[in-house]
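A quick aside before the break. I want you to see a complete sequence-to-structure record at least once, exactly as it would be stored in a machine-readable document. Don't worry about memorizing anything.
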Amino acid sequence: MGYIYIFCTILFTIYGQIILKWRLNQLGSLPEGFSGKLKFMGHALLDFYIISGFISAFLASLFWMAAMTKFEITKAYPFMSLSPALVFIIGIYFLGETFTWGKLIGLFFIILGTLITVKF
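That is the input. The structure line, written in tokens, reads:
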């Protein structure tokens, strides 16, 4: 059951990050002036999708709390490094982010490190 908590933590974390990036891309760049920034942020904070991203982050925190009751943090936390790998893949396919071999190689080492940490 503990691994389900970790999986849900990762799932909600990724959803929150992807949905925020997607929606902010649609809303445009942050304006230069202070009043423009306040107006932009106010509009963004009332956006349904952005609110869902914040709720997702909160749910991820609740699942993380549950995971902490089942695992030592040194055993559970390496799984969190899988989030960048999944965000990388989702970002390329759904957000049109750029693929580079450097990013891919870096993610390979993150996953390798996770496997080593979990196994030993």
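Two observations worth writing down. The helical segments are 2-27, 34-45, 48-68, 73-80, 82-95, 101-119. The chain has a mean pLDDT of 91. We'll return to this after the break.
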